Amino acid sequence: MNLAIRDIRYHSGRFILTSIGLGLLLGVVMSMGGIYRGLFGDALAVLDATKGDIWVVQQDTNGPFAENSRIPEDIKYRIRAVPGVAEASPLSFQTIQIERLGKPFRFFLIGYDLNGFGGPPVIVAGRNIRQKHYEMVVAKAMKMAIGEKIHLGLHDYTVVGITGKVVSAGGDPAAYVSLADAQDIQFKKDNDAIRNDRERIGANLAGMQNISPGQAKFLQQNIAAITESTHTVNTIVARLAPGADLHGVQERISRWNHFRPISVEEQTKILTKGMIEKARMQLGLFRIILLVISGVIISLIIYTSTIDKIKVIATLKLIGSQNRVIIGMILQQSLLMGLIAYFVGYGLILLTYDKFPRRIVLEAQDLQGLFVIVMVICTISSFVGIRKALKVEPAEALGG
Amino acid sequence: MYAIEVAKLTKIYGKGETAVTAIADATLQVKPGELVAILGPSGSGKTTLLTSIGLINEPTHGKVVIDGITVADERWLPGLDLKRLRREKLGFIFQAHNLIPFLTARENVMVALEINHLTKNEAKARADELLTSLNLGHRLDNYPSALSGGEAQRVAIARALANRPKVILADEPTAALDTENGKNVMALLKQLAVENRSAILVVTHDHRMVEGFDRIFTVSDGKIIGEKINGNTSTSQALA
Ligand SMILES: Nc1ncnc2c1ncn2[C@@H]1O[C@H](COP(=O)(O)OP(=O)(O)OP(=O)(O)O)[C@@H](O)[C@H]1O
Ligand SMILES: [Mg+2]
Q1: Do B22 and B11 touch, CB atoms closer than 8 A?
Q2: Which residue of A82, A141, A216, B14 shows the fewest CB atoms closer than 10 Å?
Q3: Which three-class secondary structure string do you get for A163-183?
Q4: How many other CB atoms are found less than 10 A from the CB of residue B14?
Q5: pLDDT tens across A6-38, in order?
Q6: In this prediction, what percent of chain B has a pLDDT beyond 70?
């Protein structure tokens, strides 16, 4: 006969309520673990989707995600020529926040070479971008319909396809346009600014004594072309040929002086160690605090329920119960409370995780770890009750 | 051989100025099958005598022998498994029935059997048999809160008897009952003493209940001041 269960069955109300309350706490603990895993997944989403081997960025930067990086687009030709490189494709990234339906609308715009790689990893509805201009593929999370238009920079862009769950390191959903469009959106000046610039260059050149008007005209056109050029990208991603030597290729590119070739492994470290380490510590701290609170609650409940049972415990001792019968009763109640709470929390998180604003990733390993921790906490929490119970004298069973 | 042997038992609570001598130099013996009463005013030390015999209170002086086993000689003998002795040799019945509130009548009896290493099925069979013999066959699945005082006391008696103890110690088992139920419980104890050959020591200050006893000890101020033998039973005559 299991005394722990009999006792709980007899006054189940308090026990169940406490277990559910604890379950809510554990649900929060689980969601925080899930948020951390989600942060991790988000941080690496674009990196993983691109499937590159080397990310070439501006020298001395940790770009293109953690830091700004700008490099000329045409460096892709030089990278493609490096032995061991199979393909290289430029990418442009920018975070955009506009108004849509009267609300701030934030997303991460990725520009990719339509003939290269780094575009949408999957198309779940509609089609991929086919035309060089004014077409756009958006992440499902942006909740845009195919055919919808939005105004970015100087032009309107039409949604032609929907991709899956791609997000920026900050958790913003991603949208894709052609590289040329992305460059336009990022760098292109409006017509007034261009006219002003041209006039200023012309006026400066006209003031120079020793050049002819023909030379001045030629110079003005060249200078204007450079200032109006939008052929800048944030990174060029290289994929290596099978069997190519990663370090060899990296070494070769770094010798050019103006660029930093970051391997996927290094990029992962930059993203996880640098960008989400603080969030991890913060979430970890909250989880520890919540677990400690759970432990205190369990201790209190087990302690008070032991106090309520002093007479029962004394009677058990009087009729000759072994200590293990009494310890077992208290410990099992504590563990059962943890067990119920754990599954309440787990059920809660299963029901709600896809409704969280940020991605929650539940990993079996995390959940199992938490289970073990909860059981350990329950065991420790029952000690106060057990200590009290062991001190009860059988004589306390006598009298009213 | 005696079931209970107490020699020069003294129990002093506390120390120094606040010390209370609850039992002083008490000597008594009870044979198997005897039903013996301890009578005396409140505070005279009746409960203390019972708990000292029942391995609940450690004596200050004197000797206690239960079913041939010396359990105390000046103090509890070292190395004794008191819990085991309590569950194997002793049965307790109290004024307040002391049933476990979250167990049914049957389970209250079963728990005493299971801690004495009976299997669940054995315990259940024995509990049902005992309770049925105490006219509680229709109350097996009731919680104590749903039992009358007399029924609850009979469940407590069933629990005390569960492991067929050699010694049953009862502290005012009829105090919470009306006369009728009280008489029934006394008759039951008498029957058990005879049938099971248990020594039954009953504390009472209820003079209505003294008829059925083989012997009656009177306690006052911690001392046994008198012993009356009911002449009509063979055991008491043998003792006299
Ligand atoms: N745990 C204790 N500590 C100190 N003194 C105690 C303790 N238990 C009992 N006493 C004292 O010992 C004396 C005998 O008490 P006991 O309970 O044995 O009397 P009793 O005859 O059973 O009384 P009652 O008829 O009221 O139950 C009393 O003076 C009581 O105050
Ligand atoms: Mg008493």
Answers
A1: yes
A2: B14
A3: ECCCECCCCCEEEEEEHHHHH
A4: 10
A5: 999 998 888 899 899 999 999 999 998 898 888
A6: 96
Structure letter (DSSP) for residue B103: S
Confidence tier at A148 by pLDDT (50, 70, 90): very high
Q: At what angle do helices A323-352 and A3-10 cross, to 10 degrees?
A: 60
What is the reported pLDDT for A295?
Answer: 87
**What is the complex's ipTM, to 2 decimals?**
0.89
Sign of the Cα pseudo-torsion (A359, A360, A363, A366, in order): positive
Under a CB-based contact definition with an 8 Å cutoff, are residues B53 and B66 in contact?
yes
Domain B30-57+80-234: which topology?
Rossmann fold (3.40.50)
Q: Rounded to a whole number, what is the distance in Å from the CA of B83 to chain A's nearest CA?
A: 4
CA dihedral B73, B78, B81, B86 (to 10 degrees): 20
3-state secondary structure of B93: strand
Beta pairing class for A232-233 and A71-72: antiparallel
Separation CA A326–CA B100 (nearest Å): 13
Let me know: does A276 contact A66? Beta carbons within 8 Å: no
Question: Is 70 exceeded by the pLDDT of residue B231?
Answer: no
DSSP for B117-154, written as a single string? T--HHHHHHHHHHHHHHTT-TT-TT--GGGS-HHHHHH
Are the C-beta atoms of A305 and A333 separated by less than 8 Å? yes
Q: How far is B109 from chain A (nearest CA, A)?
A: 11
Beta-bridge partners for A103: A100
Q: Is ligand 1 within 6 A of the CB of residue B46? A: yes
Single out the residue of B23, B22, B28 nearest to residue B6, CA to CA.
Answer: B28
Residue of B nearest to A319 (CA): B87
Determine the distance separating the centroid of ligand 2 and the alpha carbon of B9, expressed in angstroms: 17
Query: H-helix or E-strand containing A151?
Result: strand A149-152
The region that residue A320 occupies, defined by phi over 0 for left and psi between -120 and 50 for alpha, beta otherwise, is left
A328 phi, psi to nearest 5 deg: -60, -45
Domain ranges in chain A are 3-42+277-398, 59-188+230-258, 191-229
Q: Is B168 helix (H, G, I), strand (E, B) or coil?
A: strand
Compute, in angstroms, the gap from residue B44 CA to the centroid of ligand 1. 7
- Whether A110 and A176 have beta carbons less than 8 Å apart is answered as yes
> Which of the residue ranges A83-92, A238-247, A258-267, B198-207 would you say has the lowest mean pLDDT?
B198-207
Which pair of structure tokens corresponds to residue A92?
């442009």
- A310 burial type by CB count under 10 A (0-12 exposed, 13-18 middle, 19+ buried): middle
Distance CA A322, CA A324 (A): 5
- CA geometry: angle A86, A89, A92, nearest 5 deg: 160
Nearest CA to ligand 1 atom 13: B22
- Which chain A residues have a beta carbon less than 8 Å from that of B116? 320
3-state SS class at A194: helix
Nearest CA in chain B to A393: B56
Q: Could B115 and A320 be called an inter-chain contact, meaning their C-beta atoms sit closer than 8 Å?
A: yes
CA pair distance B194, A62, nearest whole angstrom: 95
